[in-house]
Write a structure and sequence with these properties.
Blueprint (H helix, E strand, L loop, with lengths): L8 E2 L8 E11 L5 E11 L9 E4 L5 E6 L9 E4 L2 E4 L7 E10 L9 E5 L2 E5 L19 E10 L5 E4 L2 E8 L3 E12 L6 E4 L2 E8 L5 E8 L8 H18 L7 E7 L6 E2 L4 E5 L12 H16 L8 E2 L5 H19 L2 H20 L11 E2 L8 H18 L1 H15 L3 E2 L1 H12 L8 H4 L5 E9 L4 E9 L14 E8 L9 E2 L5 E2 L2 E4 L3 E7 L6 E4 L8 E4 L3 H10 L3 H24 L8 H11 L6 H8 L4 H8 L5 H18 L1 H10 L10 H17 L5 H11 L3 H14 L4 H14 L3 H12 L5 H9 L10 H14 L1 H4 L5 H14 L3 H8 L10 H15 L6 H11 L1
Parallel strand pairs: 2-11, 17-18, 18-20, 21-23, 24-32
Antiparallel strand pairs: 1-22, 2-3, 3-8, 4-7, 5-8, 6-7, 9-10, 10-15, 11-14, 12-15, 13-14, 16-17, 19-20, 24-25, 25-30, 26-29, 26-31, 27-30, 28-29
Amino acid sequence: MRTDTGQVFKLEDYRPSDYAIPRTELTFRLAPEATVVTATLTIERREDTALTTPLVLDGDGLALSRLEIDGREPDLSAYDATPDRLTIHVSPAARQFRLTIETVVNPSANLALMGLYRSSGVYCTQCEAEGFRRITYFLDRPDILSVYTVRIEARREEAPLLLSNGNPVESGDLPGGRHFAVWHDPFQKPSYLFALIAGDLGRISDQFTTMNGRTVDLGVYVEHGKEPLAAYAMDALKRSMKWDEEAFGREYDLDVFNIVAVSDFNMGAMENKGLNVFNDKYVLADRETATDTDFANIEAIIAHEYFHNWTGNRITCRDWFQLCLKEGLTVYRDHEFSADQRSRAVKRIAEVRALRALQFPEDQGPLAHPVRPRRYREINNFYTATVYEKGSEVVRMIRTILGTAAFRAGMDLYFDRHDGEAATIEDFLKAFEDASGRDLSQFALWYHQAGTPHLAVTSRYDAAAKELTIDIEQSVPPTPSETRKRLMHIPLAFGLVGKDGQDMLASSVDGATVEDGVIHVHKRRHSVTFSGISSRPALSLNRGFSAPITLSVEQKAEDLAFLAGHDSDLFARWEALHTLFSKAIITAYRRLRGGKAAEFKPELAALAGAIAGDETLEPAFCALALTLPSEADIAREIGGDIDPEIVFAARLALAQAIAAANRQGFEAHYASLVDGGEFSPDAASAGRRALRNILLDHLSLLPDGAGLAARHFRDATNMTDRAAALAVLVHRQGETQEAAEALARFESTYLADSLVMDKWFQIQASAPGAETLDRVKALMRHPSFSMNNPNRVRALIGTLANASQTGFHRADGEGYRFLADTVVDIDRRNPQLAARLATAFRSWRSLEPIRQEKARAALLSVAQTSDLSADLGDIVQRTLA
Ligand code: TRP
Ligand code: ZN
């Protein structure tokens, strides 16, 4: 594990490498505690490299056991090996040579899950971003593209399955119960896309015929006995392959495509060429064990990793500052895929909720950074919501600005120009500029400037002149190390909604700014006038969430209520309703803080009831409409001096008002959606379950809520309903008999299934109230819990810190102390996981003063710990700065 050296990497320091590695041959002699790795690298000095320049290969905690240059052992003076570096003093005469490096690594001791490690006995690798250097010395940077041939040897009994990237070439027996396989990947790739899997796994097989008639053998590998749980993932893979051909003209390029599910994994999944490795949580699913959200995540992540084959692998990143080039673009592609497979409006609302929950607090706090950062200390800490989700929003805005046809032409040009290269964001933007003839130079600030832009909007209607004028003012709030911001190009989709709910056909006086329903904001102030407006319309702004900004519109509550009921843009309807919810909860919060009781206008509960009961709307949309803004959403809207307990109380009060006002309607609706017993994970069926479950959540706040939830739990025929009922029992009823019985029942049913037990941990860790912390501490001693498994740790500790506002932000500060101690403990095994958990502190400055001080003290205690990893040290220092 690398401890913090304090070294900072800067974008402006990029230089091409002095040497290239056109070919890489690897041999792995696998053994649990001492795997011997032999790398034979063909090294070439680049044309303009000075003859005396040494070759400096990256390592991370490596032990060199043998070295050869062109087949001969070199003089001791010819090289210098440390755990972190191998320096070769290359003979000036040698323009090209072969370097053989032997290292010995211990996969069983590797708890960081980077490099070569073992997960439930399966050998696996994770090399992104800089894990390859934990396997062998290499130029471990993404602009070093090499053609790999990999030979794997292992005991046949321990590892009958031997996989690597590319196509299989050869396999056979070796003496002593061992065997081997050779894989060759004809596509040159960076080291971070290397992968090896060896173990004893079950397989499901299928085939895909590409648009040019090539047959690809597909395999999904899972633990023996779990093969039926991989069927949905396989189906999602085939749909992804087809969609990428239809939507982007991208065809798969190898004879085989393999997916392997492992149970110990730091992230969701990894796009290694031809051999995607997945967190098993994003592969395994059936009605009994997976929720509809699990199914949707599996579909999205299978697609995401598959789509990387073109956006990431065929065209990769020049350096890690360009991470969004592959991640933002690939998230955009997986969003579009899911939107096409499911309901576009519902998908869009879910995306925006996730962006606001994860990216907005990042952009508005101490960890803010541009979509393309300019500096980092630890690249692992930049796999963020900003790079991924905001990065996707930026691509989406390019499509909005260019229009569908020019966007596609730009993508085609990008693929054409840069296939086989390691590219930059500038290359990407240039392809769109060249394909469309548009100037994207101001737009490019979305990549370079951190922070969430804000638009303040007012409007005036002149009845006599039949004119509507919209006044817009743009501002970009300061972020760490960027105090002065430049003005951005913000595409603001809009509609002027008339009394009949129809969009008015309005012509703008300023045609350059308004185009196809989009106002192009690019200056500090705009005044846009529309003529021929016969009555005052309701203003619908940022339709479809066309730009990832915050917006304040001077607008009457009746206009918002009208939009919630009538806007032709479904996202805008949801947004209008939720703006009303949010304002009402904040008003209640202020009243409660002032010692008064919460009060709500009856119209709001009635509106919620009307939308939930509108049969012209999709049930999934109604479910989202009835899901109140989260406590964290509300805290973010309030901005500062937050008391999480009062936020909780204010939100609960609105939920109670809605439930009480709609009791009869909700009961009837709930009954009408009763589960008929048949099951399909499709979006429409999932939507009906979602609506029924949110209705249950509201009804549970009324008398005999516990009885209703207990019946829902008992009668559930799938995990979505069972987990939803358990959450209602545990969160809404507290420590009741019903909750205790359901927890015990769930535990005894699923004790042997770790992924399902994660839900059991999660539901308990997200319960409101100060006692949740004590419960989490007790659950850490549960036999199913393990500090070494990232899914378990995230389910219990991550959930407490991110989903139980009143548990984590306990007034006595014990939640902060607990998280601080726990991340230090985890850091010794898995720095990446520890650093990610520590980001739960990122909004500490928006708390009320007493909690703020306690959070700061906890963060300081982490910062003062000796031998922190670079990962955790970086997060804690930036959070405190
Ligand atoms: N490239 C992966 C993806 O988004 C992310 C990833 C998987 C990753 N494992 C990782 C990033 C480990 C850093 C470290 O699809
Ligand atoms: Zn990705």
